[in-house]
Amino acid sequence: MTRQQRRVLIVCILASFVAFLDGSIVTVALPAIAHDLGGGLFIQQWVVDAYLITLGALILIAGSFSDLFGRRRVLAAGLIGFLVTSLLCAVAPNGLFLIIARTLQGVAGALLVPSSLAYIISMFSGPGQSKAIGSWTAWTGTANIIGPLLGGVLIDMLSWRLIFAVNVVPVVITLYLLRLLKHDGHRNPDARVDTIGAVLCAIGLGGTVYALIEHARFGWGSPVIYLPLLAGIVNMVLFVWYEHRASQPMLPLGLFRVRNFSVGNIATFAIYAGLSVMAFIVVLFVQQVGGYTAVQAGFTILPVTICLFLFSSLIGKLSERYGPRFFMGVGPVIGGVSLLYLLRVDSSVAYWTQLFPAILGFGLGLCITVAPLVSAILGSIQSERAGIASATNNAVARIAGLLAIAGLAIVTGPQLTVQSFHRGIVMVAVLLITGGVISAIGIQNIRTKRS
């Protein structure tokens, strides 16, 4: 690794780290945000989903921006945007202001992850590229460990507003290091930005999510709900139709002709929908019903991240040797069945006897799943198309969490109680087990890459 390559890798890790950190740190702050700004479960859902709507809608198109304008320029724009919107979130005077700021923050975040990966792919080749991507994955994954714990400390000792202000330091450091880079990777001046596809996707997701979250306040029969829902569905249908016809689509539908890619992404949707709801509902429940502090809530789901950190590499090697199908079939089922133990939870919310066994089992199931899932999806696609394949899978995971959290109130109702928590856990278990069954039936153990 040359000095320049090392600098590129460090910049890409830091740039993506802030986006991942923001995703993991916010959940633990939701009760404090609702307490200060009001709005209950609705504002908690919107604080998460406003960010995910723009992130999910634009994360694919960001790759075209980096090809057209250059990796450094797009990363710089994303970092500056993330810095400004983080400060806006930190000073939000009310819930609506915070939701708008989070929406804009998602736009900036969408520029960071795919541009970072594109920069790495353009600066590394051969075994060095795989090693660089592995380092990027390992280091950015630590954001999932640091986020809830750092967020809990900041909230309990000072204020929830600091979880957004804390982004300032890593962003400023990354911008400084970015200025030192001389090589911008390979640009494609002929690349086209799929603006129509991005608009259709954003309206489709926005209208659908709005209806799912706000239906409890207005009712499904209100035009305030069914008109946005109808607009969302129509725009998502138009999005798929347009992507099929576009000359340079942001979502190449031809990738889905590859069996493991299509089945793997369907499984991803179910599994990550369950994972997102699990993290959301458990952290809220232990604080609002169990009386846990924000720090204690951050520690609650720590076993999941520790399992991923300790065993993902081993499972990845076993999956490479024996094929991903067994692991993708068994892992989600173990996770889903383990979470059913949470049906024993009562109002005392005892951690070691009621929560820990289920969360540990879920973590083990998840670590059995994740590396084989990525291997099955990317291993079925030619290496030169790995960037768009990875971005597509990332977008599917984000959109799955977006829609699942938006629709959670349909299952739990507007308030979290012990009974509604149990219903939410059953929803998560069903999603995970469904993902395992889909994988067991549809995934093939293929050792050679296909296009």
What do these coordinates show?
The protein is mainly α and 451 residues long. The chain has three domains: 1-191, Growth Hormone, Chain: A, CATH 1.20.1250; 195-247, no CATH class; 255-451, Growth Hormone, Chain: A. Helix content is 78%, strand content 0%. The chain has 20 helices and no strands. Helix 1 packs antiparallel against helix 10, helix 6 runs antiparallel to helix 7 (127-141) and helix 13 (259-288) runs antiparallel to helix 14 (294-300). The two termini are 29 Å apart. The mean pLDDT is 87.
List keywords for this structure.
single chain; 451 residues; mainly alpha; Growth Hormone, Chain: A; 3 domains; 20 helices; 78% helix; 0% strand; globular
Task: Summarize it.
This protein is mostly helical. It contains 20 helices and no strands. It has 3 domains: about 190 residues, Up-down Bundle (Growth Hormone, Chain: A), CATH 1.20.1250.20; about 55 residues, no CATH class; about 200 residues, Growth Hormone, Chain: A (Up-down Bundle).
Measured by DSSP, the beta-strand proportion falls in under 5%
Query: What is the typical, i.e. mean, pLDDT?
Result: 87
CATH architecture of the largest domain: Up-down Bundle
Question: Order of helices and strands, N to C?
Answer: HHHHHHHHHHHHHHHHHHHH
Q: Regions with pLDDT < 50 over 5+ consecutive residues?
A: none
Kindly identify the CATH topology of the largest domain.
Growth Hormone, Chain: A
Distance from N terminus to C terminus (CA atoms, Å) equals: 29 Å
Percentage of residues assigned to helices: over 70%
Give the overall form: globular
Backbone structural class: mainly alpha
CATH class of the largest domain: Mainly Alpha
**β-strand number:** 0
Number of domain modules: 3
The DSSP helix count reads: 20
Q: How many strands, what sense, and barrel or not for the largest sheet? A: none
Q: Report the CATH superfamily of the largest domain.
A: MFS general substrate transporter like domains
